[in-house]
Every structure is written in C-alpha cells, then in structure tokens.
Amino acid sequence: MSSIVTVMADEIAEQPEAIRRTLDALLPLREELRGLFAGRRRVSFVARGSSDNAATYGRYLLEACAGVSAALAAPSIATHYRADLDLTDTLLVAVSQSGATTEIVECVDWARSHGAAIVSVTNVADSPLAKGADVALVTRAGPEVAVPATKTYLTQLVAMAVLADALGADLEQDLARVADEVAGAVRGAELVEPAVALLRDAAHVVVTGRGLCLGTALETALKIEETSLTPVRGYSYADLRHGPISVIEPSVVAVLVAASDGPMLEPMTALADDLRRRGARVVGIGGDTPFARTCDVHVPGPDLPEPVAPLGLVVPAQLLVEQLARARGHDPDNPRGLAKVTRTDSH
C-alpha cells in the first residue's frame, strides 16, 4: 500500500482525542437525560445514512443493556404521512452529524407537537437540531473535511453509549478504555492490508454482523460502497441466513464483524465456516481466536466487551475502507456524487 496520506486517514487518526473530548462533554449530561426520560417508556431514533447506523447501535444498546424499549422511526411518517401519533411516552433521539438535515429537523418539530421529549446528537452546536432539542448531545469530533463520516460517526456511537449509561446501562468504566483501544487500532493500520488485497478484485462483496455489531457491519458496507463505487450488500446475520446465503459462491468476499465475546460470537463463527464451505472467501474483523481461525483473512478488533466493542470495531473497518478505495484507484476523501449534508426530499 502506498504512503499517500488522505484527509480521511488523518481524520481516522484524530479519533482517540475526539472520543476523549466527547466523553468529557457528554458524561456530565447524564442526569439531564435521566430527568428528561422520567415518566416515559420508550425511545425512538430518527436518522439517515451513517447516522442511521449509529442509531441502530443505540437501539440495540438500550434494549440489551439498559432494559429500555427502543426502535428506529421512519422519517416519512412525519414528513410525508404526517401521522397523528401519541408520543407522550416517547423520547425521540434525532441524529445528524451536521444537525442541518431538513428531514430530520422536520421530524423533531413533528414529534414535539405530538408530545415527545427531544434529544439531539450532532457535531454542530449552533445547528437547528441542537437548538431544537431539550438536551443536545453535541459531539466533539471537530470539523470533518472528508466526505465519508469517520470521526463524526464514532463520536455518535459515544453519544449512544452515554445515553444508554444514563438510562440504566453500566458502561462508564468500559467507555474509559475506548480511546486507548482506538489509538492501538490506528497504530496497526497495516494489519488491514491482507483484507484489502482480498477485497480489491472481488466481484461481489457482502458485509454482515449481528446484534450490537449490526450497525458497524452496515456502516462498513455503506463506506465500501461510497468510496469504492461498487455495489455492496449489508445484511444482518438473520437476513443473510434467510435466503441470500443460497447464492453465495466463489466470486463473493464476505466481511464479518464480531465482538470478542457475547452471545453472537458463536453464531458468527459458525456463519464464517458455512460461507467458506459454500466457496466464499471470508474477511473477519474482531471476534476471538476460533473466529479468526475460521476466516481466510482476519483483522484484529479491540479488547473491549460487546456493549462498547462497536466503538473500536469500526476503526479497522474505516482503515480497510480508506486503503481499499485507494487500491481501486479512487479518492476516498471525495466520493463521486456525495456531499456532507444528507438531502432528502421532504415534499
């Protein structure tokens, strides 16, 4: 791999400090979050693009670790159907790195008019989303120049973990270790090179994960697709098992994302073995030693327990994406046809 330095690579390298700044800013807001949720029963997330993948992690984290019912809301229910729903028992979490995605801002206005309390997750303190929230979780990623979200996405995951900790999960001690684990992953950027070599000429790529790691898998698929300009399918473990696995063949490279512990590790290891028996080549990110041995190429993940593992797992995935784009002759900083602010038709 060449020594060309991209803005995306620089911003990946800035993430340990971005995590530390974001934790310092958001952990003191936990009491406000608890107070806002008091008397309410559920959390709904609204987001698009990479922010939607961060929200997927938040949903799993709240339900699996905080015992709070959570779901992903469809923005069109507010912006197009204008449904009349009773949201008086709901905390709406609106996620947008820019805080300026018109569709998401409209969802906030709609949800508030129907009784919801509002938390925003954004990287811009004076954005409409931050100003319109009851509690604004403003991440401290700093300005992000490269079009593919890296440090803004990871600090969104930090915000999700802080929210879950505030609502009943016990994550503070594990969160304190995340920045150091991410720094280690950044220093080991060369460890993704065998995976890049395997993916560079792949005719078909699928990416999968399960549970708390699903959002990371979907984000990895999205970023490969954005930067390498090739179709990539991101599946949950269950969706891949129910149908698409029947068309797996030797032309497919499958990327599997797994934590090093937790109830999803054994099924993900079995899936890696199954995919290889069907002829696919498998790139594993994270997992444990048996998982690594089952893959054709393995990229080490963080030494973090499953609830916060996605914050570390996304970093080797980002490094892989950046290097793969360059290996395929593309500019990862400026993927064709993309911009930083998501624009979705709201009319």
From TrEMBL:
In terms of InterPro entries, this protein maps to:
GlmS/AgaS_SIS, GlmS/FrlB_SIS, SIS_dom, SIS_dom_sf
Could you mention a single GO BP entry for this protein? carbohydrate derivative metabolic process
GO MF terms on file?
carbohydrate derivative binding
Coiled-coil regions listed: none
Please state every residue range assigned to the domain named SIS.
33-174, 195-335
Q: Region Disordered: list its residue ranges.
A: 328-347
Give the UniProt keywords, A-Z.
Repeat
Give the Pfam families listed for this entry. Answer: SIS (PF01380)
Which domain of life does the protein's organism represent?
Bacteria
The name of this protein is SIS domain-containing protein
The record lists the organism as Janibacter limosus
